[in-house]
From TrEMBL:
SUPFAM superfamilies: ClpP/crotonase (SSF52096)
Assigned keywords, A-Z: Lipid metabolism, Lyase
Coiled-coil region: none
Gene3D superfamilies, per database record: 2-enoyl-CoA Hydratase, Chain A, domain 1 (3.90.226.10)
Protein name from the UniProt record: Enoyl-CoA hydratase family protein
Amino acid sequence: MGINRHTETEGVEVVTVDYPPVNALPSDGWFALADAIREAGRNPETRVVVLRAEGRGFNAGVDIKEMNADVGHTKLIRANHGCFEAFAAVYDCQVPVVTAVNGFCLGGGIGLVGNSDVIVASDDATFGLPEVDRGALGAATHLARLVPQHLMRTMFYTAGTLTAQQLHHYGSVFKVVPRAELDAAAMEVAKNIANKDGRVIRAAKRALNGIDVQDVHRSYRYEQGFTMELNLAGVADEIRARFDDDIAAQKKEK
Protein backbone atom coordinates (compact mmCIF):
# COMPACT_ATOMS: atom_id res chain seq x y z
CA MET A 1 0.00 0.00 0.00
CA GLY A 2 1.15 3.55 -0.72
CA ILE A 3 3.22 4.89 -3.61
CA ASN A 4 5.36 2.36 -5.47
CA ARG A 5 7.90 2.94 -8.20
CA HIS A 6 9.70 0.50 -10.48
CA THR A 7 11.48 0.30 -13.83
CA GLU A 8 9.22 -1.54 -16.27
CA THR A 9 11.58 -1.63 -19.23
CA GLU A 10 14.48 0.43 -20.55
CA GLY A 11 13.64 4.12 -20.28
CA VAL A 12 10.20 3.58 -18.68
CA GLU A 13 9.56 4.21 -14.97
CA VAL A 14 6.18 3.26 -13.51
CA VAL A 15 4.68 5.01 -10.47
CA THR A 16 1.69 3.23 -8.91
CA VAL A 17 -0.82 4.69 -6.45
CA ASP A 18 -2.33 2.15 -4.05
CA TYR A 19 -4.43 3.55 -1.19
CA PRO A 20 -7.42 1.22 -0.64
CA PRO A 21 -10.32 1.34 -0.80
CA VAL A 22 -10.74 4.23 -3.26
CA ASN A 23 -7.31 5.89 -3.61
CA ALA A 24 -8.33 8.96 -1.60
CA LEU A 25 -4.86 10.14 -0.64
CA PRO A 26 -3.91 11.45 2.80
CA SER A 27 -1.73 14.54 2.78
CA ASP A 28 1.46 12.49 3.21
CA GLY A 29 0.43 10.42 0.21
CA TRP A 30 0.36 13.46 -2.07
CA PHE A 31 3.88 14.42 -1.01
CA ALA A 32 5.07 10.83 -1.51
CA LEU A 33 3.58 10.80 -4.99
CA ALA A 34 5.30 14.08 -5.85
CA ASP A 35 8.64 12.71 -4.64
CA ALA A 36 8.28 9.49 -6.65
CA ILE A 37 7.46 11.30 -9.88
CA ARG A 38 10.28 13.80 -9.44
CA GLU A 39 12.80 11.07 -8.64
CA ALA A 40 11.72 9.09 -11.67
CA GLY A 41 12.13 12.12 -13.91
CA ARG A 42 15.55 12.99 -12.49
CA ASN A 43 16.91 9.55 -13.36
CA PRO A 44 19.01 10.19 -16.49
CA GLU A 45 18.04 6.78 -17.87
CA THR A 46 14.31 7.63 -17.75
CA ARG A 47 12.64 8.86 -20.92
CA VAL A 48 9.00 8.52 -19.87
CA VAL A 49 7.00 7.99 -16.65
CA VAL A 50 3.78 5.98 -16.48
CA LEU A 51 1.41 6.97 -13.67
CA ARG A 52 -1.18 4.32 -12.78
CA ALA A 53 -3.27 3.07 -9.86
CA GLU A 54 -4.40 -0.18 -8.29
CA GLY A 55 -7.95 -0.82 -7.14
CA ARG A 56 -11.43 0.23 -8.16
CA GLY A 57 -10.51 3.70 -9.38
CA PHE A 58 -7.59 5.90 -10.32
CA ASN A 59 -8.10 8.59 -7.68
CA ALA A 60 -10.85 9.88 -5.38
CA GLY A 61 -9.07 13.07 -4.37
CA VAL A 62 -8.06 13.97 -0.83
CA ASP A 63 -8.88 11.93 2.25
CA ILE A 64 -11.87 13.84 3.67
CA LYS A 65 -11.85 11.72 6.83
CA GLU A 66 -8.36 12.99 7.60
CA MET A 67 -9.57 16.58 7.37
CA ASN A 68 -12.71 15.99 9.41
CA ALA A 69 -10.59 14.52 12.21
CA ASP A 70 -8.49 17.70 12.37
CA VAL A 71 -9.66 20.33 14.87
CA GLY A 72 -7.89 23.20 13.12
CA HIS A 73 -6.75 23.71 9.55
CA THR A 74 -3.37 21.96 9.74
CA LYS A 75 -4.43 18.96 7.66
CA LEU A 76 -6.20 21.14 5.11
CA ILE A 77 -3.12 23.29 4.62
CA ARG A 78 -0.92 20.21 4.32
CA ALA A 79 -3.32 18.60 1.86
CA ASN A 80 -3.37 21.81 -0.19
CA HIS A 81 0.41 21.87 -0.28
CA GLY A 82 0.59 18.14 -1.04
CA CYS A 83 -1.82 18.39 -3.97
CA PHE A 84 0.06 21.39 -5.31
CA GLU A 85 3.35 19.48 -5.13
CA ALA A 86 1.93 16.35 -6.78
CA PHE A 87 0.26 18.24 -9.62
CA ALA A 88 3.42 20.28 -10.14
CA ALA A 89 5.60 17.16 -10.12
CA VAL A 90 3.58 15.75 -13.03
CA TYR A 91 3.69 18.99 -15.01
CA ASP A 92 7.35 19.75 -14.28
CA CYS A 93 8.58 16.16 -14.63
CA GLN A 94 11.67 16.27 -16.81
CA VAL A 95 10.17 13.65 -19.13
CA PRO A 96 6.63 13.07 -20.44
CA VAL A 97 4.11 11.50 -18.07
CA VAL A 98 1.65 8.96 -19.48
CA THR A 99 -1.33 8.52 -17.15
CA ALA A 100 -3.41 5.32 -17.16
CA VAL A 101 -6.85 6.03 -15.71
CA ASN A 102 -9.08 3.23 -14.45
CA GLY A 103 -12.56 3.63 -12.95
CA PHE A 104 -13.22 6.96 -11.28
CA CYS A 105 -10.97 9.99 -11.52
CA LEU A 106 -12.22 12.66 -9.13
CA GLY A 107 -10.96 15.82 -7.44
CA GLY A 108 -7.21 15.62 -7.11
CA GLY A 109 -7.18 12.93 -9.78
CA ILE A 110 -8.19 15.61 -12.29
CA GLY A 111 -5.17 17.66 -11.19
CA LEU A 112 -2.85 14.74 -11.94
CA VAL A 113 -4.48 13.84 -15.24
CA GLY A 114 -4.88 17.41 -16.44
CA ASN A 115 -1.18 18.10 -15.92
CA SER A 116 0.02 14.88 -17.59
CA ASP A 117 1.23 14.66 -21.17
CA VAL A 118 -0.70 11.64 -22.47
CA ILE A 119 -3.90 10.11 -21.08
CA VAL A 120 -4.99 6.53 -21.69
CA ALA A 121 -8.22 5.39 -20.04
CA SER A 122 -10.23 2.24 -19.50
CA ASP A 123 -13.71 2.11 -21.01
CA ASP A 124 -15.27 2.34 -17.53
CA ALA A 125 -13.35 5.50 -16.55
CA THR A 126 -15.22 8.64 -15.49
CA PHE A 127 -13.86 12.11 -14.75
CA GLY A 128 -15.23 14.87 -12.54
CA LEU A 129 -14.77 17.49 -9.84
CA PRO A 130 -17.15 17.09 -6.87
CA GLU A 131 -15.45 19.99 -5.08
CA VAL A 132 -18.58 22.19 -4.92
CA ASP A 133 -20.45 19.35 -3.20
CA ARG A 134 -17.63 19.15 -0.63
CA GLY A 135 -17.44 22.85 0.20
CA ALA A 136 -14.17 23.34 -1.67
CA LEU A 137 -12.76 24.62 -4.94
CA GLY A 138 -9.73 23.65 -7.00
CA ALA A 139 -8.49 21.80 -10.09
CA ALA A 140 -10.72 23.75 -12.49
CA THR A 141 -7.34 24.80 -13.87
CA HIS A 142 -6.69 21.19 -14.82
CA LEU A 143 -10.22 20.33 -15.92
CA ALA A 144 -9.96 23.24 -18.37
CA ARG A 145 -7.09 21.37 -20.03
CA LEU A 146 -9.41 18.42 -20.68
CA VAL A 147 -12.65 20.02 -21.94
CA PRO A 148 -13.79 23.30 -23.53
CA GLN A 149 -14.33 26.30 -21.27
CA HIS A 150 -18.13 26.27 -21.03
CA LEU A 151 -18.29 22.55 -20.48
CA MET A 152 -15.68 22.91 -17.73
CA ARG A 153 -17.84 25.52 -16.04
CA THR A 154 -20.95 23.37 -16.30
CA MET A 155 -19.13 20.35 -14.89
CA PHE A 156 -17.68 22.41 -12.05
CA TYR A 157 -20.96 24.06 -11.01
CA THR A 158 -22.95 20.81 -11.21
CA ALA A 159 -20.20 18.47 -9.92
CA GLY A 160 -21.01 16.34 -12.96
CA THR A 161 -18.84 13.72 -14.62
CA LEU A 162 -17.85 12.75 -18.14
CA THR A 163 -16.87 9.36 -19.52
CA ALA A 164 -13.55 8.43 -21.05
CA GLN A 165 -15.29 8.15 -24.40
CA GLN A 166 -16.51 11.75 -24.14
CA LEU A 167 -13.01 13.01 -23.32
CA HIS A 168 -11.67 10.96 -26.22
CA HIS A 169 -14.10 12.89 -28.42
CA TYR A 170 -12.51 16.16 -27.25
CA GLY A 171 -9.04 14.79 -27.91
CA SER A 172 -7.79 15.00 -24.32
CA VAL A 173 -7.85 11.22 -23.82
CA PHE A 174 -5.60 9.59 -26.40
CA LYS A 175 -7.01 6.09 -26.27
CA VAL A 176 -9.88 4.22 -24.57
CA VAL A 177 -9.48 0.48 -24.06
CA PRO A 178 -11.09 -2.34 -22.05
CA ARG A 179 -9.98 -2.34 -18.41
CA ALA A 180 -7.91 -5.51 -18.85
CA GLU A 181 -5.89 -3.84 -21.63
CA LEU A 182 -5.21 -0.52 -19.87
CA ASP A 183 -1.69 -1.17 -18.62
CA ALA A 184 -0.62 -2.64 -21.97
CA ALA A 185 -2.06 0.36 -23.84
CA ALA A 186 -0.24 2.82 -21.58
CA MET A 187 3.00 0.87 -21.97
CA GLU A 188 2.62 0.87 -25.75
CA VAL A 189 2.59 4.67 -25.79
CA ALA A 190 5.36 4.86 -23.20
CA LYS A 191 7.64 2.51 -25.15
CA ASN A 192 7.05 4.54 -28.29
CA ILE A 193 8.29 7.64 -26.46
CA ALA A 194 11.12 5.73 -24.75
CA ASN A 195 12.46 4.68 -28.16
CA LYS A 196 13.29 8.31 -28.94
CA ASP A 197 16.52 10.05 -28.00
CA GLY A 198 16.21 10.99 -24.32
CA ARG A 199 17.96 14.32 -24.83
CA VAL A 200 15.42 15.35 -27.43
CA ILE A 201 12.46 14.16 -25.36
CA ARG A 202 13.63 16.14 -22.31
CA ALA A 203 14.13 19.24 -24.46
CA ALA A 204 10.69 18.72 -25.98
CA LYS A 205 9.05 18.57 -22.54
CA ARG A 206 10.69 21.85 -21.52
CA ALA A 207 9.76 23.47 -24.81
CA LEU A 208 6.09 22.45 -24.64
CA ASN A 209 5.80 23.67 -21.04
CA GLY A 210 7.48 26.90 -22.08
CA ILE A 211 4.90 27.66 -24.76
CA ASP A 212 1.90 26.70 -22.60
CA VAL A 213 -0.80 29.38 -22.65
CA GLN A 214 -1.54 29.13 -18.93
CA ASP A 215 0.62 29.15 -15.83
CA VAL A 216 -0.97 26.10 -14.19
CA HIS A 217 0.89 26.59 -10.91
CA ARG A 218 -0.26 30.16 -10.35
CA SER A 219 -3.79 29.41 -11.57
CA TYR A 220 -4.25 26.45 -9.23
CA ARG A 221 -2.76 28.35 -6.29
CA TYR A 222 -5.32 31.11 -6.89
CA GLU A 223 -8.13 28.53 -6.69
CA GLN A 224 -6.74 27.14 -3.45
CA GLY A 225 -7.11 30.57 -1.84
CA PHE A 226 -10.89 30.33 -2.16
CA THR A 227 -10.89 26.85 -0.66
CA MET A 228 -9.10 28.22 2.38
CA GLU A 229 -11.55 31.12 2.57
CA LEU A 230 -14.52 28.73 2.57
CA ASN A 231 -12.92 26.74 5.37
CA LEU A 232 -12.17 29.80 7.50
CA ALA A 233 -15.78 30.90 7.09
CA GLY A 234 -17.00 27.51 8.34
CA VAL A 235 -18.84 26.76 5.09
CA ALA A 236 -16.70 23.75 4.21
CA ASP A 237 -17.11 22.19 7.67
CA GLU A 238 -20.88 22.51 7.42
CA ILE A 239 -21.01 20.88 3.98
CA ARG A 240 -18.58 18.10 4.91
CA ALA A 241 -20.69 17.32 7.99
CA ARG A 242 -23.74 16.93 5.75
CA PHE A 243 -21.68 14.68 3.49
CA ASP A 244 -20.74 12.47 6.46
CA ASP A 245 -24.40 12.29 7.52
CA ASP A 246 -25.42 11.22 4.02
CA ILE A 247 -22.78 8.49 3.97
CA ALA A 248 -23.92 7.23 7.38
CA ALA A 249 -27.54 7.19 6.21
CA GLN A 250 -26.61 5.21 3.11
CA LYS A 251 -24.80 2.63 5.22
CA LYS A 252 -27.87 2.20 7.47
CA GLU A 253 -30.09 1.67 4.42
CA LYS A 254 -27.80 -1.16 3.29
